[in-house]
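As a warm-up, study this chain.
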Amino acid sequence: MSVVRRAHRHRTCPPQPRTRLHRPAGPVCWSAGLFLRPSGNVIEADLTAPTVTDPDTIDADRPKTVRHRGVLYGVVGLALLAIAGYSLIRQRRSERDLRQARHQLATAHVEAAVQLFGQHHRSDGLLKLLEAHEAIDDRDPLAEPIRRLIAGWSRSVGAPLPHDDSVVAVAVSGDGRLAITASHDGTARCWNLKRGQPIGEILYHEDDVVGVALSADGRFAITAGDDNLARIWETTRGAPRGKPIKHNGDVQAVAICDDGSRVVTVSGNVAQLWGALNQVAVGAPLKHTAEIRDVAISAAGPIAITAGADRVARLWDTNTGRPLGPPLEHADEVVAVALSESGQIALTGSLDDTARLWTVATGKPLGPPLAHAGDVVAVALSRDGQTAVTGSRDHSARLWNVPQAESRGPALRHAGAVLAVAISDDARLVVTASEDDTCRFWEGATGRPVGVPKPHDHAVVAIAVSGNAAVAVSGSLDGTARVWRAETDRPLGAPLGTDGNAYRATGSQDGQITLEQTGAHQLLVRHVSSGRLVSALQLPDRYLICHAISPDGKTVVVGCDDHTVQIWDVATGWPLAAPWQHPTQLVSVAFTSNGEVISGGVDEQAWRWPLPTASNSPAESLRLSIEALTGLTHDRSGRTRRLKQHEWLARISQLQELGEPAAGLAHPDRSR
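Now compare it with the structure written out below.
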């Protein structure tokens, strides 16, 4: 049987000739069956073998390729340039919008500050000016006016002596170099008034410190505390002298004689004399039948006087502790007392709306009662006993001639109760403290005001003045005492024998700025060439009497019917400083060539005043200086808060490290 082979099932392919692959001569780019020419054109290719590009073809296409590439680069470059230009425009527009927003914010802060200044809230106003300054950069046209405002208004804020609670009692040495303050924070502090910094350590009590007295030379002080203790201190070291003087209840009041050898303390209805050196009681207790409200001791120390809620004041011999003469009677509680230096005249103030002068030797009244329309809660006598000062809840203080018991000059007006009064040794200066959050300076001879009210942020309850009238210290419920110098409110040098009209100019030196008074309360500042209104100065509560513009056209000065002189920034219409008080009715104001302001009165006397200049301190120094001056800062939420004493001291230290004096803390230069 034959076998038939089935070739179709096992077909054998004919052998293929083997082909040797050679490396192509032209450039080849493999890419999954594709290759690219140098020009970038994609050409299909066999998957099994490379395709060869002819070098001659490449050379022929190269000029065309270069042209295409140049066009592409040009288009891309133009696109990038357009994008960059657009971004730059947007950036500059954003920067301009930001500058405008910051400018508007700064303007709002300054307007708020000006309102606060008008309400006597000058610390808050300065802090607003600081916010305005920090909102802009030095290129903004508001930068210079804001710095001028800071410089001008800083002069009207007294250097602070901060505590962590109400400052309720103050005392100043006769030479004005040292002060001591007492606070409800349980401490008293001694201060160097020239540098505005504490001396020695804190003087501690275990409860509120409510009273303080200082020897004439400032070497010794005595403090009264609600911890039932009185303490005597050596002020130069800030250290206690001897042991505390213990009582059976709160110590309400203290006094010390001029040489510091004797002190008197009050607790309840008992006063007691003590030797200051050994803290040993001198004589018997000095008793009233009701609580004792106040105490004073004569300069030499032989006589003390106490004021009682039993409606009498009593005189005491400090050597024996025995009463002198009969009680000094009132119709209601006696709450304030004073003695002349010689101890011959006494002054008492009562809730029966009167004060009374007394002859110490006889215990008899000296002249008629010194009448007020409300409680008389504060009294003071000049050292020679010729001038008396009384302060009342009828919103006034009064000056009185002694021994005639006659009123001298007009009432010294406040907007609230007058809670404390003080007078310099020579009676040239009187200082009053009020519930209206201010203290004020007055001429002792005439009762005319010296400068404008000195503001605190709360009621002013304590006041003291140095014997030489150089400095006063006020204590307030806002937690600070403040140092005030009468010379900052006084003009420079001696008066000029003219009414000042010879200096007056109503246009700038270049003739481009002019002033136009349009009514009793408004002054317009205009560009002469264009007639454009630069600013409008409004004084709604005062009548404009006279005005002038500085030679550089940047500052306007106006004189008003209330005898005040005020300066304004031309570009913004903002007041550059607190008003100055001219002694008499004004007839002219002007600028001198060296940058001072002249005010002339009906008495043919002209006075010079300093013109504030923009501060050039760095921003950080300016911030520290304003916070040190005001005693205020902002917390993290942006709200205003008062600095603690240690925070304030830290800022003073930082300013010293930066070589920058804190505004208002340095003794002012009045040498011109």
